[in-house]
Each structure stands twice: as C-alpha cells, then as structure tokens.
Write a sequence for this structure.
C-alpha cells in the first residue's frame, strides 16, 4: 500500500467501518450472492412448483448439450455478438478519429455522435421495427425502390438477425466513442507531430500508431460490449422478432427468459444462467489482465 | 446558448494551427454524414409521431402531420404512458438515491479506515461484477414471489441498489483527494459522516454528477427486470409500456404514429440527462485513468 493511501487512513474504528459498509454488504448478500448461489443450486434440480425441488444432478446440463435448439441459440448469440461488437467498434474508431482530427467544433461533433449512449434499447427496437417494417417501413421501401433489395426480415431469418444487429450497433456506438475519443485525446501531440514529419498518411497513423497505443481501451470496450451484446440484445429481440422467424434471432438471453417465464422451467433456465455466468467470468478475467478498469455491465 | 459559445471558443483555442487547411473539409463532411445517419431514425420517428394513423400508413409521406397534440395526448392519457413515465421516474430516483448513499458510505470505509477485513470486503464487492441480472434472475424472481415483493416498487428497485461500480468510482475519487486536506479534517476531530458531508461530497461534485448520469441512463433504460417483476400493467415502466402500445391495434392496424410518439417520450429524459451532464459524464467515463 502506498504512502499516500496510508496517510488517508485517518480513522481506525473497525466498528464504524463495519457500519459504513453494512448497507452495501447486506444488499449484496441478499440480492446478489444469495440469488447467485441459488442459481447454481436450482440448476441441479427439477422444480415443479416454486419451492418443490428434486435433485437431478447434471440432467439440465446434459439436456442443454443435447438440445439442437440450445446449440442453435448459442450459435446465433455468438454471431450476433461478434458482428455487433466488431462493426460497432470499427465504426466508432473511425468516427472518434475524425473527431480527433477535425480542426474545430470538436465538442459539438462529440455530443452529436455520443447521444446513442442514452438511447434506450426498447426505443431503438420499436423505431427500427417500424422504419424497417416489411410492408410499411420507409427504409424497407427505399431499399426496394432505389437499390432493388427486398428486406423481407419477417420471413428471412438472416435478415431478421441483421435488423436486430442494426439496433445494437446504433445504440452501442455512443459508449464506444466516449472511451475512444478520451483515449485518443491523451496521446501526446509529440507522437503525432513526429509521425507527420515522417510523412505517414492519416489512416496509417490511426491503425499503425494510435490503435496500438489505445489497445487497452479497445480490449476493455470489446469485453464490455461483448457482455452487453450477450445480455442487452434481449429488449431488441423481444420487441422486434420474439426470437423468430424460425428461431433465427433466438439469442441465449431470450431463450432463458422464455424457458423461465413462459415455460416455467426454472431449473433448466437456472442451468442456462450458469452457462452465462461462466461466460461473464471468462470475459472478466480477460479484462482484468489488460486493464485496471472495472466494467459496468449494466443493471438492466 | 452561453455554454455552446464557450465550447466553440475552446475548440478554436485547442485547434492546432498545423492541422488547418483544405484537408479538414472532408472530415467535416464525413462527420456531418455520420450525424445524419445516426439521427435519421429519430427525426423520422418525430415526424411520424405527428401524423394520423391513416397518414402513417402512407409510406411515401414523410412530412409532419396535423395530429401532434392529439397523438401525444392519446399516448399520455388514454394509453397510460404518463403513468408509465412516472413509474420509470420513481424507480430511477429511488435507485439513484439508494446507490449514492450506500456507495458513498462504503467508499468512505474502504479509503479512510484501517481495519482487518478491508481486502476481503473489497473483493466481496468486486466479485458482484460477475453477477449481472441474467445470472441470478430466476432465484431473484422466486425470492420476490416468496416475500411478496412481486408487482411492487420495493421489488423493482431493491435488487439494484447495491452497486460495485459506484463504490469503485467513489473509491478512486476519494483516493485522489490530497492527504493534506484529509489530515486537516482529522486535526479538527470530525466524525466520518461529517467528514463525508462537509469534505468529501463537496470535493467530489463532478464525479457525483457523472455517476448520477450513468445511473439515470442505465436505470431508465432497464427493460428485463421490470418486465419480469411488474405483473400489473398500471405499475409498469415506460420501456415496457412501449410493448403495450406496440401490441395495441385499432381495427386491426397497429397505430404506429402512437408507438412513435411513445418512443419519443421514452427517449427524452435520458437524452436530456446526457446533454445537461455531458461534461461530468465524459470525465467520469472517459477520464477515469489511474
């Protein structure tokens, strides 16, 4: 512990410290640790009615492995996450670079592109649901009229996934740009000046010079957005496609919700939660390896 | 308007003379194009929210209609959206109040106290980052059912009041306060609560504003938990309320003009928070380098 933090420790009553921590600890215990442990417990049980549990060992996990629906849902989630995170991050990087390079109105541009951070996913979902509506949507109409593309995402599963991805990319960009512009802003101008003297082109400067320098932030964003896409896609899917057509947009979180709250299979749903936990744990290990920031995965 | 002026002046001052020139024209152009693409869906929705149901079904009609007041009144009162917005606001304010209080107290203990199980307490809070809602939603729902908190604001808010993120942000902020100031407070012999209220909070205003903004945006946008825990429509929040309006059809037609109006209403509060607090939000999120 550094000298500075030692000097900050002006109080020493353990009882006082415990009292200050009590509210947080109590709520964490009741609403986070207890339900988490219970999730693991339930995943080994069959639950007919609430409170009536029978031990069935790994049956739920075996069922998950054997279920082609679940494996399909897993694949859809990976695809949705990979495309959303990659496209959103790449676009955000380019936009942040433009803001970094522009000679004036920097702050005005910045606010005009980070606002999607405040965009509720449910709002994004209903807007796109209408604007991309197969029969009524103005975007669908424009695609058909000017480009000859028939965007029939009510019947074509791949297009449905694209529609949901568009919502996630749109909403995710604000958060990315906030972090990337902050990171770019901290690169010493001497480095940029040296690069300019060497006559390196703009895009080369971005990808050869800046990207390696800000790579910890980029990894941080990949982790946060990957977790966000895994969980956050729920509102989009629930409001736009309900997992369809033919399960094409049935991401894991939607599958879990359906099994828990529509099919009342609480044990099976809990086992799916454990799989999600394993995933979050892996992401967090990666994140702590590369940065000392603690990500906020959102309480929603 | 004054703040915009200041920002413009700032950016003039910060502009590097070497980067001025014609090369900047296409950068402005690309940025404008980006802004248009990002804003287009919102602008269209705003227009549709003023049209009649008949007009909104005419694809090529992208002009403002005459039903602005009628649509928003219908959404707010006939479709209960005012109620949903109020519920969202209550949920958000309760959670923010609780999170701020709890996390400021906890951060004070973690930074200014020397006690035995400090590392343990720190890790106990840290590990909760591994437990987002989807990982504990089934037992949490059962817990709410058992203690009778389903369909209540207690059940809606309580699970989100403890916050690892806020504790860590305040911990980081407190550690950056100079030790000399802290030692002066110690010489004055004040207790921890007075120390928090009269020294720490005034010195952390920017961070507090940033944390409030982050929490407001994330809680206002919550969808899954309200959907699960609120079983009665009248208790529902705005985001899930969109689902009800989307699902209502009049004479077999979804009233998309009303859906768009509701979406605009649900978007406005977090957008205002973002614009008003942008400086604190940006420094809290982006500036947190240690």
């Amino acid at each position: 512990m550094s000298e500075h933090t030692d000097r900050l420790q002006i109080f020493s009553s353990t009882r006082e410290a415990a009292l200050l921590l009590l509210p947080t600890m109590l709520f964490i215990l009741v609403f986070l640790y207890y339900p988490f442990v219970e999730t693991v417990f339930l995943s080994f049980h069959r639950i007919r009615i609430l409170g009536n549990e029978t031990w069935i060992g790994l049956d739920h996990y075996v069922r998950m492995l054997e279920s082609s629906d679940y494996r399909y849902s897993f694949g859809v989630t990976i695809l949705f996450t990979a495309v959303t995170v990659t496209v959103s991050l790449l676009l955000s990087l380019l936009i942040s670079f433009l803001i970094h390079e522009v000679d004036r109105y920097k702050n005005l541009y910045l606010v005009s592109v980070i606002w999607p951070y405040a965009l509720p996913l449910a709002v994004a979902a209903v807007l796109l649901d209408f604007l991309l509506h197969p029969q009524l949507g103005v975007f669908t109409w424009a695609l058909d009229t000017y480009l000859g593309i028939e965007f029939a995402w009510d019947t074509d599963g791949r297009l449905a996934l694209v529609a949901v991805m568009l919502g996630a990319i749109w909403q995710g960009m604000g958060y990315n740009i906030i972090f990337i512009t902050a990171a770019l802003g901290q690169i010493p101008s001497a480095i940029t000046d040296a690069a300019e003297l060497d006559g390196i082109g703009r895009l080369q400067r971005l990808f050869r010079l800046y990207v390696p320098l800000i790579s910890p932030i980029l990894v941080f964003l990949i982790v946060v957005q990957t977790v966000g896409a895994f969980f956050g896609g729920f509102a989009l899917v629930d409001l736009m496609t309900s997992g369809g057509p033919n399960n094409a947009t049935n991401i894991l979180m939607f599958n879990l919700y359906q099994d828990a709250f529509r099919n009342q299979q609480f044990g099976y749903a809990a086992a799916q939660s454990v799989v999600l936990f394993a995933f979050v744990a892996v992401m967090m290990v990666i994140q702590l390896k590369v940065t000392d920031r603690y990500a906020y995965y959102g309480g929603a | 308007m004054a703040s915009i002026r200041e920002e413009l002046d700032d950016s003039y001052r910060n502009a590097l003379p070497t980067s001025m020139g014609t090369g900047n024209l296409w950068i402005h152009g690309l940025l404008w194009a980006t802004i248009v693409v990002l804003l287009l869906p919102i602008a269209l929705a705003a227009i549709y929210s003023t049209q009649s149901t008949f007009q909104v079904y005419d694809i090529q009609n992208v002009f403002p209609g005459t039903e602005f007041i009628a649509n928003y009144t219908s959404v707010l009162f006939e479709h209960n959206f005012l109620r949903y917005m109020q519920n969202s606001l209550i949920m958000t304010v309760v959670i923010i109040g609780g999170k701020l209080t709890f996390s400021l107290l906890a951060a004070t203990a973690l930074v200014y106290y020397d006690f035995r199980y400090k590392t343990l307490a720190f890790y106990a809070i840290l590990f909760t980052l591994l437990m987002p809602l989807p990982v504990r939603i089934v037992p949490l729902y059962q817990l709410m059912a058992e203690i009778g908190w389903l369909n209540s604001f207690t059940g809606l808010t309580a699970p989100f009041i403890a916050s690892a993120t806020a504790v860590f942000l305040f911990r980081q902020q407190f550690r950056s306060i100079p030790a000399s100031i802290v030692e002066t407070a110690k010489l004055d012999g004040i207790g921890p609560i007075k120390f928090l209220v009269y020294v720490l909070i005034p010195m952390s205003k920017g961070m507090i504003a940033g944390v409030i903004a982050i929490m407001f945006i994330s809680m206002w946008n919550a969808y899954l938990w309200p959907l699960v825990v609120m079983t009665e429509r009248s208790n529902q929040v705005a985001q899930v309320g969109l689902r009800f309006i989307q699902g209502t059809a009049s004479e077999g037609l979804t009233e998309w003009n009303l859906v768009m109006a509701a979406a605009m209403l649900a978007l406005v509060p977090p957008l205002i928070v973002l614009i008003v607090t942008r400086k604190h939000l940006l420094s809290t999120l982006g500036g947190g380098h240690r």
